[in-house]
Amino acid sequence: MTDADMASPVGDTDAILEFRGVTKSFGGRAPAVRHFTLSVPRGQLVVLIGPSGCGKTTTLRMVNRLIEPTDGSIWLEGRNYKSYNPVELRRRLGYVIQRIGLMPHLTIGDNIAFVLRLLGQAPQARRARASELLEMVGLDPAEYLDRYPTELSGGQQQRIGVLRALAHDPDIILMDEPFGALDPLMREQLQEEFKRLLRTVSKTIVFVTHDMDEALSMADVIVLMKDGAIVQVAPPEEMLRHPADEFVASFMGRHRVLRQASEVSVADVMIASPVMTPEASGLARSLELMRRRRVNSLLVHDAGGHYVGVVRQSELQDHIEAGDQSPVGSLADRTADTLAPSDSGLTAMHQLLSHQQLDSLPVLDADDRIVGLVTRGTLVGLLGDALRVAADVQEIRAEAASAPAGEVAR
Question: Do 233 and 353 fall into the same domain?
Fold first, then answer.
């Protein structure tokens, strides 16, 4: 078969990777992958996600010919991938798996540069490339280059697995649940680190995960699969707003509810007239104001209305009992976060959850003046409204599905 015979006659000319009607069957069982057709544009991170057994890992493994399709074809940069020798093909791709697969008898530097050695690159050049990549993820080559995998933490080993996939500068990297075996905190740290890394190297990524949080955080495009077939292909925002069917809506689940919260601004839910006091007010007077207005904290402002900080009832009481004659402004605390009116309700939720000791956060305008207050109570109400909306939508869809033909549900 010549290259001309394998040239791409149809398809997306901007795609670096294409699946055309790919099907994979094992024995007499139902196909693991069915009529899978997808174009992957250069430079995008495409996430394959779906329930266990939906065919996402099988699809990924067909790209580097660890599994051969039963039907259909896969095209790499306009060429049928079968025109490549399988070993040559795999060297054109980067591959990162959950189990990492570092070779314990090789140093970190040799693990990173393993493919470069297969390609015949000189030892000095391989070592220089490994050092460069270690520096990119904040690992000192002088400390890590000559160590062995067993001397590293799980998170550090996973970093090395990613660097090994990048070492020979492939255009496409395949990643099969690369962070799935890590604890949630480490997983989030590596996700952020990987996104920063992608801003410095232009790569096309096909990424398999079962974690919708990870997909929403990482993906340019999400490919949601079920029973071996594609159900919907869309950017995260579009999939959240416009799920293709009930399966997609159900799979997105709580993320759609939280996205509704993200579409509500702080200005929509804040208390517009919070209890405030001038910084020159006395302590006893400020405490009396708090008792009268039934609040346990006060926002303190200067003569121009600018935010000075917050003071709490227990602190005021302690200073009064100690005979402190200072103005209330001297006790104002400004260490906690503040919000802007344009911030989303979801941002406010996150900030309050990160400050468990606080019941509220001040809202400031661009000139640092107090314009409102967001409390835990208002955010609980917001989330409750979002949940009720989601429930109403499900009820309406259920009624529409069961209505006789021609009848419009409410």
Answer: no
Are 67 and 58 within 8 A, CB to CB? yes
Number of structural domains (the chain) is 2
pLDDT at 250: 81
Instruction: Write out pLDDT tens, residues 331-359.
Output: 988 887 889 998 877 778 777 766 666 77
Domain match, 186 and 315 both: no
Residue 149 and residue 111: Cα distance in Å, rounded? Answer: 9
Q: Which domain holds residue 113?
A: 15-252
CA dist 386 and 245 (Å) reads 20
Shared-domain flag, residues 39 and 158: yes
Q: Cα separation of 129 and 165, whole Å?
A: 12
Q: Is 72 a domain residue?
A: yes
How are beta strands 33-41 and 15-24 bridged, if at all?
antiparallel
Residue 49 predicted with pLDDT over 90: yes
Reduced 3-state DSSP string for the chain: CCCCCCECCCCCCCEEEEEEEEEECCCCCCCCEEEEEEEEECCCEEEEECCCCCCHHHHHHHHCCCCCCCEEEEEECCEEHHHCCHHHHHHHEEEEECCCCCCCCCCHHHHHCHHHHHCCCCHHHHHHHHHHHHHHCCCCHHHHCCCCHHHCCHHHHHHHHHHHHHCCCCCEEEEECCCCCCCHHHHHHHHHHHHHHHCCCCCEEEEECCCHHHHHHHCCEEEEEECCEEEEEECHHHHHHCCCCHHHHHHHCHHHHHHHHHCCEHHHHCECCCCEEECCCEHHHHHHHHHHHCCCEEEEECCCCEEEEEEEHHHHHHHHHCCCCCEHHHHCECCCCCECCCCEHHHHHHHHHCCCCCCEEEEECCCCEEEEEEEHHHHHHHHHHHHHHHHHHHHHHHHHHHCCCCCCCC
Residues 227 and 270 occupy one common structural domain: no
pTM exceeds 0.85, yes or no: no
Report the pLDDT value the prediction gives residue 263, as an integer from 0 to 100: 62
What integer pLDDT is reported at residue 262 of this predicted model? 59
Verify that 203 and 289 share a domain, yes or no: no
Q: Are residues 54 and 104 in the same domain?
A: yes
Distance, in Å, from the CA atom of 166 to the CA atom of 197, rounded to the nearest integer, reads: 10
Pair (288, 352) in one structural domain = yes
